[in-house]
Queue: 2 jobs
Job 1
Amino acid sequence: QKMMMTDPCADFCSTYENTVETGDHLDAKKGPIWLLGECFELDKEGGKRKLKEVIYSKLWFTYRKNFRAIGGTDYTCDTGWGCTLRCGQMMLAQALTWRHLGRDWRREKDLSQNHVYNQLLGEFLDRPESLYSIQQIGRHN
């Protein structure tokens, strides 16, 4: 199934957020931090920068509101009950990112040319036709 989007970045930004903090709180940290099996030595040159790049590259799905109702229900918001589904989406997105882009892939500032990433991201949009949307996960059969 091929996902067609006129402006994938705009569609993404209107639905999801991928935030990374400034990282200022990392300045006081010492020693290693482990994230998904990768060690980041914060005391060493470039350690904090590398950690920020990895965090910035993770897809972040959080509570949403005003999406199309999940089939057979009136739910258009997942606040208060959707955390497990969103966590599942994030784990699946991470696995698919590693599978299709590689474990060392890092997000760039301009994603408009990264068709694989945009295709993957489109499968998680909160739309019934998106393969891994909350509507697909929560639909009634």
Note: The chain is about 35% helix and 5% strand.
Job 2
Amino acid sequence: SSRVLWTLAVTQLCQYFDTTTNSWSTNGCSVVSVTDSLLVTCSCNHLTDFAVFQMPVTITPKQLLGLIALIIIPFAIAGVWWYRKRQASKNADRYAATEMSTGNYNKFDA
């Protein structure tokens, strides 16, 4: 198993103990609200005993690298596109300046 790098957040789950499967389940239960003081309001569509679980949301080094790539790659692509567009514009300006300085206007004649 991968080593956990750090906990990003804590999420609350409303669960009940399902005696059929002998395990905790969220079926039919949901978190309605969570206050700043971590008061959790649950809503269940059945009458069972339920509990609130706080589950840490963690990230591994491999997941962190994937997240960084998802953030950086679009910016890198946009940067390359912008740079190439800027260079093309500069080259077009240089070409126009050269044409004007040599007096070669034939390309604009009909």
Note: The CA atoms of residues 18 and 24 lie 6 Å apart.
